[in-house]
Design brief:
CATH class of the largest domain: Alpha Beta
Structural class: alpha/beta
Bound molecules: iron/sulfur cluster
Number of strands: 14
Strand order of the largest sheet: 3-4-5-6-9-10-11-12-13-14
Radius of gyration: 21 Å
Distance between the termini: 37 Å
Helix content: 25-40%
CATH topology of the largest domain: TIM Barrel
Shape: elongated
CATH superfamily of the largest domain: Aldolase class I
Amino acid sequence: MPDKVKNIRSFSLEELIVEMEKLGEKKFRAKQVYEWLWKKHAATFNEMSNLSKPLREKLSQNYSIEQVKILDSQKSSDGTVKYAFELSTGQMVEGVLIPTPKRITACISSQAGCSLDCKFCGTGFLDLKRNLYHYEIYDQVQHINKEAEKTYGRPLTNIVYMGMGEPLLNYKNVLSSIDKITSEDGMAMSPKRITLSTAGVAKMIKKLADDNVKFEFALSLHAANDETRSKIMPINDSNNLEKLTEALEYFYEKTKTRITYEYCIFKDVNDSIQHAQELVEFSRIIPSKVNVIEYNQVELADFVNTTRKRMDAFIHHLEKNGVIVNVRRSRGKDVDGACGQLALKNW
Ligand code: SF4
């Protein structure tokens, strides 16, 4: 047995061909193994039933299959399920399965913890432990997809990168995970069913544009004036609305993709008609729509959800001024699985 077994999922198909040749195997074996690892999501070499037993043994002597495991789950009364995933290095992240009549959505994590300290977010109170590898992000999707089929008899229709972490601060792994999810070698999902959401890293928004990405893109805006936004999201001090505006214009010019602004509505913080008017103006910069999100209080945060009356007035003002608005009612609240609540509680 070699001193150190290699993580077989860190190889591209081309690299795997080289590895197979080193083992004295034919090239086409690499394609078979690759299919087991990604498309069929095998957790052991033993499952690879079209490979001979000696080859399976050779593989397990030389390589490991690092895979994220489901440690536990909690089901909400509205059908939302929150999962605790264990990484092979011991840290935990969370993912959420959100069923609705039309869609089944997986909300997945891109980092263990987060460095951005958004003041309303449970994850923001955890330290950043590390970036997830591309296969660890992919595993969450595969696991939640299997769970969706098991629990609801339907596969995933949508994936949102809105769980723990800031996806654009783990750019390379996030984009490779999307490559795998959309590739024929992986889950063959349309990129239009994937939404990446950022707290607003202007430089990386421009990079997305340069890479001409095809998935949907959302910005967690939460306020369209710098003073309020900085109170909610400290990242606004370094990536203010002027910088974001410039990045968004660049993004739209290159991708022609309509952007979604996420707007969590907090009582007496960002819920006035003046705030709504600022949002109307901001939303005119490039073609966009706005998701107004009901806030779910988290223990350490100072924010609370606004009243139904103020929320209705806010939404009415947006609609009256031509903004396309969707209202996101809270899901999975009772298991702390709703937006901003992923904080590794109660496992
Ligand atoms: S909202 Fe997102 S970026 Fe902000 S602290 Fe939470 S996980 Fe990090």
